[in-house]
Amino acid sequence: MQTIIFALLSLVIIAVMYWVIVPRWVKRYRTVHVEGLDSILEGTARRVEIKMKESSSVNAFSLPGGTILVTSALLAQSNDEILAAVAHELGHISRKHHLKGFIVTGMLISSAILALGYLGYLAGAFLILFSFLFQRFLSRRFEFEADSYATTLVGRESYSNLLMKYESSGEGRSILSTHPTVWERLKKI
């Protein structure tokens, strides 16, 4: 019984982190306007809020609830690059990757805890390893889907240019990476 309670409690903690703490944390950042965002949102029926975080790295990421956090370094790039990065994050929001990731993570963590409690350490350790690797697979799949979505909003050329410009030489080369290589991504779009 304690194992079941612990598994359920872990789900509640993850949910609170995901949908309460992170959205409140991001409110401290300044809302910014991205030129041309309205035109790419036109056919999507989406409303998003863009927030800026001071950082020297060019990056953007989406959060549950439709907020996209962009770095100040990204905002210093060309408007095409900014829109391509935001379109990718819109793909994560549109495809509900946050919710799907939460559900899968919750199921995997609960299963691992239950396996540890009822089947023993070996089964629990195997399930934890499987969960970790499966989440990496799922994350890469989500990246491909968000890439495809971005391509429909800003065009293949604009999005490909963004990927090529910020290609990291080590990105995606490890089984532990959450992102596929740029070359894999370019082949899929």
TrEMBL record:
UniProt entry tagged with the keyword Zinc: yes
Transmembrane segments: 6-26, 56-76, 102-134
Record's signal peptide: none
Peptidase M48 domain: residues covered: 52-189
Alphabetical list of Gene3D superfamilies matching this protein: Metalloproteases ('zincins'), catalytic domain
Cofactor requirements of the protein: Zn(2+)
Keyword terms: Hydrolase, Membrane, Metal-binding, Metalloprotease, Protease, Transmembrane, Transmembrane helix, Zinc
GO biological process: proteolysis involved in protein catabolic process
Cellular component terms per the entry's GO annotation: membrane
Cofactor: binding details: Binds 1 zinc ion per subunit.
GO MF terms held by the record: metal ion binding; metalloendopeptidase activity
Protein name: Peptidase family M48
